[in-house]
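Slide 14.
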Amino acid sequence: MTLLRDNGAPAAPATGTSGGSDGSVIERSWETPDAFAAIFDRYAADIHRYLARRLGTDTADDLMAETFVIAFQRRRRYDPAHPHARPWLYGIATNLIARHRRADARRLRALSRVASLASGTEHDGPEDGVAERLSGGSHAALAGALAGLPARYRDVLLVTAWGELDYAEAAQALGVPVGTVRSRLHRARTRLRKALAAAGHPTPNAPQKETDRG
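Slide 15: predicted structure.
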């Protein structure tokens, strides 16, 4: 998945084996706490993947669990009129990442170094597959450019690219207006393109027009 594309398309309503939208499941969990397990089943893997990309697998294990503990504790604050819990969960996860800002940037710099040495070879360590996960331009240059972004730009870029949230969902997750999401995405993409070009890896396309189809 490229980090430089638009991501304004809304997701389909979330349902699981227990049936019902996320909102209805969470509302049901107010009186039947065990019902909340369906939310974990639907999103735990996605939240863990997002956290692991940003902070590494070991930290992701703890923070994924903490994300759902916090979500469970706050479930009565959730508005069941919102059918999708993904933005809410990604918001909690991103807030937890804020405690690890230095680790977030440090990991990206490490990924940049690993990717620059990979040259298509196989790896046995935790960075295996870095090249595939960091798509678009040079993997090393992209990871380095991401590490150099201000945290507020990096959050909005990665929650849309890796979390696959649309503009409205990203705004809900990060607690900012949709216009701020669009502005930060534009600035983040512009900075990435400049950084990649400076590293000798210009992106092939001009920045896409920001549209919100959600």
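Speaker note: The chain has ten helices and no strands.
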